[in-house]
Amino acid sequence: MITQGKVLSEVRRIASQEGADVMVKMLIDGTVKDVHAGKNFPVGLLADGAPLSGKTIDVMVFPPTGDQSSTRYELLGWNNQHDAVKLQLMAVLINGMSKSYLEKIPWEEEINTNLLLQNAAKETLEKIYQQDSHVEVLSEEFSEQETDEDELPF
After folding, report:
1. What is the DSSP string of 92-149?
2. What DSSP character marks residue 67?
3. How close are the terminal C-alpha atoms of the chain, in Å?
4. What 3-state DSSP class applies to 24?
5. Which of 35, 65, 72, 74 has the fewest beta carbons under 10 Å from its own?
6. Strand partners, 34
């Protein structure tokens, strides 16, 4: 049977035969249960402060069998989770990315200031160029006068 449960703040790792597993305290049908997070679930997203902390996600309920006397709970794999859970996570990711990239967009005043500085730099360079051109013209005229004076017959 599949049900839903709310992730509580207590998420812990446990030693298992396969290595390490994660157990999650969840509120299911009004009672707090230990839920096993399988290998097919991104368990880091359940940590305190992570995007799925405090959210409602899908849980598989395994009723007691002959050798097990208690009901066992396991998170459904990520591919089997309800689309609403995935959309919530996607919204958190998109919002976070948008906020981080928003810092790179300059304020209008900064753009105008930069534009004014660029225009001032252009004007300064144009003045320098015009002065250099004027100096070159004067030096050419001066050198022409010198050559004219050298050709005088005295």
Report:
1. HHHHHHHHHHHTTSPPHHHHHHHHHHHHHHHHHHHHHHHHHHHHHHHHHHHHHHHHHH
2. S
3. 121
4. strand
5. 65
6. 25
| 78, 42 contact by CB (below 8 A) | yes
Query: Minimal CA–CA distance to 80: which of 63, 61, 57, 62?
Result: 57
What would you report as the CA-atom Rg of the chain, rounded to the nearest whole angstrom? Answer: 38
Q: Which of 1, 4, 62, 63 is nearest to 30 (CA)?
A: 4
Q: What's the CA gap between 135 and 128, in Å, rounded?
A: 10
Token pair in block for residue 104: 């790179």
Residue among 94, 91, 43, 37 nearest 60 (CA): 37
Q: What is the pLDDT of residues 132-141, one digit of tens each?
A: 665 555 566 5
Q: Is 58 helix (H, G, I), strand (E, B) or coil?
A: strand
Model confidence pLDDT, tens digit, residues 30-59: 999 999 988 888 888 888 888 888 889 999
Q: How far apart are CA 45 and CA 50, in angstroms?
A: 5
Minimal CA–CA distance to 23: which of 122, 8, 100?
Answer: 8
